[in-house]
Amino acid sequence: MTSPPASQTALSIVAGGAGFIGSNLVRSLVARGRRVVVIDNLSNGRAAYLSCDPVTASVPLIEADLADRTACEAAFGRAATMGRVDDVWHMAANSDIPAGVADPDVDHTDTFLTTFEVLRTMQRQGIGTLHFASSSAIYGDLGETPLHEAIGPLLPISNYGAMKLASEAQISVAAESFLTRANIFRFPNVVSVPATHGVILDFVNKLMRNPTGWTCWETERNERLIARIKPRRGNAFRRRRPILVKGRSHYRPSHDGLPPTGSKKNVPGQPPGVNA
Ligand SMILES: NC(=O)c1ccc[n+]([C@@H]2O[C@H](COP(=O)([O-])OP(=O)(O)OC[C@H]3O[C@@H](n4cnc5c(N)ncnc54)[C@H](O)[C@@H]3O)[C@@H](O)[C@H]2O)c1
Fold first, then answer.
1. Which ligand 1 atom is the nearest neighbour of the CA of 160?
2. Which entry of 153, 178, 216, 248 is 20 to 30 Å from 8 by CA?
């Protein structure tokens, strides 16, 4: 039996596939036997995340700015010469939240326009399936209220969240006109390697710079709480709000600032086992 010509073999485009989540996704797709082409402008991702992994080393990487109409169309056109593009995983976005707070153009361009141009190009090239990385940032600050998909009103408090919500709205419009399938994933904080950014990476970096003065508790639910102990006036200690590094993410410490009952694992002055 002869295999179909390359131009007819099904493939997936992973936009932003050289980033943290994208490179893990590419590995997972390839491991399942999928052919993949990555499009990324390498503003935050690294070609090495793909090339240094034997599973993804041979995945083609097209360097292009997906917010630029001409570049986006050209990149999709190149991908189409490698096979029949069945679906697009859109992971490209600004992930530098402080940069987006300082300059709204950053999220308008990298978080929203990438979505707009990817959708426009998909329509022109007749690609019907989109999987989109949205964010829990679209919910804004709903306090202690447990989140669920139908909750509202959605009032984002960052340019990033606003542009993710605008992207979801644009995808909804596209689903009405040409998309046959759209999956939207509202990720919370995702933690793994190779982390390019995020609260846990910031925390680990701080810990590596100054590994003293931290303590860690394990709760009855096997959650880990980490707090910075700061000496204050003689022998008194001030305990900063604990950070939950494993388990339910909406935990808040009790009013006295102490963690729930559980065994204290580390003594002050020892770094906690963050990823243990
Ligand atoms: N990491 C998280 O905790 C988290 C949480 C919620 C949502 N998300 C979303 O998941 C997706 C992946 O996030 P990540 O953590 O892997 O971030 P990342 O920065 O590691 O990956 C994003 C990739 O998109 C690329 N990119 C950015 N602008 C581009 C442009 N204009 N043209 C082409 N490529 C561009 C970057 O170079 C990078 O490789 C993003 O859409 C992000 O908003 C991530």
1. 43
2. 178
95 lines ligand 1 (CB under 6 A): yes
Give the ligand 1 atom nearest the CA of 96.
Answer: 19
Q: Which residues contact 73 (CB under 8 A, 6 or more apart)?
A: 121, 124
Task: Assess contact for 272 and 266: CB atoms under 8 A.
Answer: yes
pLDDT band at 209 (very low <50, low <70, confident <90, very high): confident
- Residue with CA at minimum distance from ligand 1 atom 26: 92
Report which of 88, 40, 99 is spatially closest to residue 108, judged by C-alpha positions: 99
List the single range of 91-105, 195-209, 210-224 with lowest mean pLDDT: 210-224
CA of 227 to the centre of ligand 1 (A): 29
Report how far apart the first and last C-alpha atoms of the chain are (Å, whole number): 50
Cα(92) to ligand 1 centroid in Å equals: 4
Which residues, 6 or more positions from 237, have their beta carbon under 8 angstroms from its beta carbon? Answer: 229, 230, 231
Q: Which atom of ligand 1 is nearest to the CA of 42?
A: 37
Q: How far is CA 80 from CA 20, 22, 45, in A?
A: 25, 20, 23
